Amino acid sequence: MVIIQNLHKKFGKNKVLKGVDLSIKGGGIFAILGPNGSGKTTLIKSVLGMVIPNKGDISVLGENINKNSDYRHKIDYLPQIANFPSNLKVKELIRMIKDLRKNTNEDERLIELFKIQPFLDKKLGTLSGGTKQKVNILLTFMFDSPLIILDEPTTGLDPISLIRLKELIQEEKAKGKTILITSHIMSFVEEVSDEIVFILEGKIYFRGSISELKTKTSQPDFEHAIASILTENHA
Amino acid sequence: MLKILKYSFFDLMRSRWSYVYFAFYLLLGIILLFLNNDLSKAVITLMNVIIVLVPLIGTIFGVMYYYNSKEFTELLLAQPLKRSSIFLGQYLGVALSLSMSLILGLGIPFVLYGLFKSDAIWDFSLLLITGTFLTLIFTALAFNIALSNENKIKGFGYAILLWLFLAIIYDGIFLMTLIMFDDYPLDKLSLVGTMLNPIDLSRTLILLKLDISALLGYTGAVFKQFFGTSFGLIVSFIMLTVWVILPVLRIVFKSKKKDF
Q: Which of B54, B149, B227, B246 could form a disulfide with B232 if both were Cys (CB 3.0 to 4.6 A apart)?
């Protein structure tokens, strides 16, 4: 599904990724974890082609992403902070994205699910953070792509929307899709993910299931297992 | 690219500033024509305004639009769109909406005045064509500056400096060189110097079409000989086109390598 080979990226003198090798086969939910500034978002943005790597190869569904934009038809991406053009109405934004990608009727179901109906005629600049995130989720899940990338999907969501999001993620998994998630909410990660990828100082430090991580660090619960990695490495 | 162009264009058409810009030209046109009654004098005054104002507005709008639509750009980058079409679409959206404000804002009063029955129609068309060229050139330069500078304030600063240089400082330096090397034959040099600055090029082009080159003395005669012929006119338009193409190419090139 996604194959990353020897990926390097630096911003100025700051080396963010120092040789990441990762191959993710299809199906399942993968959590990408790591401390702040470890390169999670850079890694995701490299897969999306928004960040141009200094070195290394990435291929998505068998296509090398270098100088290519069509592969993004197969990716649904939820950006970390929902920054939308503020003078656009929610309705117009949905219509625009559909026009740019392809038509779908899935949006109606999602509007219903997240109760966005009352905001459709409001401008994006006037929405609260949580509502923006709901619109963000709607835009991501309305297309039926085999790869879904979620960058901090839980930001600002109320408990009901959070439950709906989890259900939505499980539904997509049941369809056999591959879902990449980054999050700092460990309980959320523990609940939804099948496998975790831990990034530390620009490299993959650990990859495996949560129970494997617990055994490796000999900690009884997931949150402490993560914390022990961080304290051991002084990160 | 056309879809991006469409969205940028309509986004700008809804913004207040496009109307202010449009209204300004409308007002300027009406005042000049109906208070002044002499069409070719009105064209000359307009030229002076356009030569300075169009580059300034193009530069500022270009930089402002780029920084303001950062979020929109990031949203688009995650979609299956080519980078070049995203940025060229936005650039053309800005440049075309500005050109439209210019052409409509000046065109409407002139048509009302009876432009089509007058001899000044060619001078006037030339004015609008060079105005459009200047918009295309300076918006492209502004996008280049904005693409290379993450920092908004720096971007704005460089953009204003660029305008100041090409609109004012360049002329100053040019003039000083001419005075200093007064003893040498300078007509070729001044021709080249004029070609290298799009603002000077536009000004000379219009001035010579207006047939006031007699005021310029011997150099004016050389200029007239060059710009006045169809060969000179073609070369000038080629130069203006080059001034559009080079920055646009850099937008494409630069945007491909940028991280977001």
A: B227
The CATH number given to whatever domain includes residue A173 is 3.40.50.300
CA B110 to CA B31: how far, in whole Å? 11
pLDDT at B215: 57
Distances (CA, A) of A116 to A97, A110, A131, B26, B155: 17, 8, 8, 43, 38
With beta carbons under 8 A apart, name residues in chain A contacting B11: 85, 87-88
CB atoms within 10 A of CB A82: 22
CA distance A14 to A8: 11
Is the model's pLDDT at B135 over the cut of 80?
Answer: yes
ipTM value, please give it: 0.83
Cα distance between residue A209 and residue A221, in whole Å: 13
**Rounded CA separation A213/A195 (Å):** 10
Residues 85-114 of A with CB under 8 A from B: 85-88, 96-97, 99-101
Residue A14: CB atoms within 10 Å: 9
**Chain B residue with minimum CA distance to A66:** B256
Task: Say yes or no for a CB contact (<8 Å) between A50 and B260.
Answer: yes
pLDDT in tens, A146-170: 999 999 888 888 999 999 999 999 9
Residue of B68, B72, B75 best to disrupt the A interface, most CBs of A under 10 A: B75
